[in-house]
Design a protein that fits this description.
Shape: globular
Strand content: 15-25%
Number of helices: 9
Helix content: 25-40%
Strand order of the largest sheet: 1-2-3-4
Length: 257
Amino acid sequence: DEAREKKPPRTAVKQARSAPPDDAEDGAARDGSRERDGYREPCIFHEPGTPFDRVITQEQAARWYNAGRFIGKGSFGETVAYRVPEAELRGGPWVVIKRFFNSNNAYKEVDLHMRIWRKSDAHCRKYLAMPACMRWPTVPTNDVYAVQELAGADPQRQTQTQTWYRTVVTYGWMMRQLTADVKEMISRQLGDMMGCFVKAGMLHGDLHQENVMVTHNLGWVDVKDRANFLSRVRFQFCAIDWGEAQVLSDETFDDNG
């Protein structure tokens, strides 16, 4: 019992450096000074009872990565998808684990991702994947892991999640036949997503078709049945990969509008 209750050294635990320095809680997030609950440190940026209400360790993330299904590879790292068992993460959610080739890229991307998450309200968070608080390595290393929820993961619905590029390639023929009100809904949603980012004081910085995910049910919709078409189409954007994001300052708005 005494061994279980012993707290790790202060330098052994670091939460994700995931917020700007204007908040009093940021110091606690960086140096791990918050109270521990056993070996699982609370994440101060997520509500208790949510899947990521505890800090994810590098050991956990590495184990999930090795058991995951490969998604893709970019200039900063490789990603896999994995469904975490209920015993390890509340709710047994699907997550994405990214293995970064450089630790500084990992720190920057998680910082910026967490920043826009914290600055967004409930309406705007539907355009984001929830990022996890990460416990970073105590020494420099090339392989660093970060975890976030898998965009659009809902096994109860007949939907699939693809990049915007892959959605257009696969269903472009069908999207050209969508009714005007559905096309308007998609266009307005894209504009609303961009507005949410500016409202949070950020620009994505690398928003191309591979960094916009779309959760949709186009594969289950009969395009020939035009009745109540809008109510039958599900279409949801989500922006990923925040490593090149820019924080907007008052000067930026004054100069550029």
